[in-house]
Design a protein that fits this description.
The protein is α+β, with helices and mostly antiparallel strands. Residues about 1-30 have low confidence and may be disordered. It has helices at about 5-15, 20-25, 35-55, 70-80, 90-95; strands spanning about 100, 110-115, 115-125, 130, 140-145, 150-155. The longest helix has 20 residues, at about 35-55. α3 (about 35-55) crosses α4. It has five helices and six strands.
């Protein structure tokens, strides 16, 4: 009998099993919230890939794709294609996220204040974001240039 097949009988005999016991016999442990975190990570990874695929697309104020974008238009488009709904503006998008610390950032919606106006992008790791910067520029990967950064995970 394999270790996996013994898990139910072990649990029945013991009444309960610790995570360590389950791991030792090849069982699995369900951690509350882990599935939703995994789902959020999967959507964020897909949104990041979609944003990256728009590299070089011109910035246009108010544009939501598929060929031109403003900053929140790019995040809206990318997360929508990844199966998540976001509001239209950068501030609304950030307010719709679960706020996280910089230490917990992954490929999340990264929102930050620049020159008294809101800006948003998708965190790509190593201190960089995919974003649509400004008029005359294009969608690109760029190092975050400010310390005034807030992070939010799309729910």
């Amino acid at each position: 009998m394999s270790a996996l097949n013994r898990v139910p009988s072990l649990m029945a005999r013991a009444g309960t099993a610790s995570a360590l016991t389950l791991a030792a016999v090849g069982g699995s442990v369900v951690v509350p919230g882990a599935a939703s975190e995994a789902s959020a990570a999967a959507h964020a990874t897909k949104a990041l890939q979609i944003a990256a695929s728009k590299k070089g697309s011109p910035y246009a104020w108010g544009a939501v794709g598929p060929h031109r974008f403003d900053c929140s238009g790019l995040t809206l488009y990318s997360f929508k294609k990844a199966g998540k709904k976001l509001p239209r503006t950068a501030a609304q998008q950030y307010n719709k996220t679960r706020h996280i610390s910089a230490g917990n950032r992954r490929r999340d919606l990264s929102s930050f204040l620049v020159r008294l106006s809101y800006h948003v992008g998708i965190y790509a790791g190593k201190g960089k974001i995919w974003h649509a910067p400004k008029t005359g520029d294009v969608v690109r990967l760029q190092k975050i240039w400010t310390g005034s950064v807030w992070y939010g995970r799309v729910k």
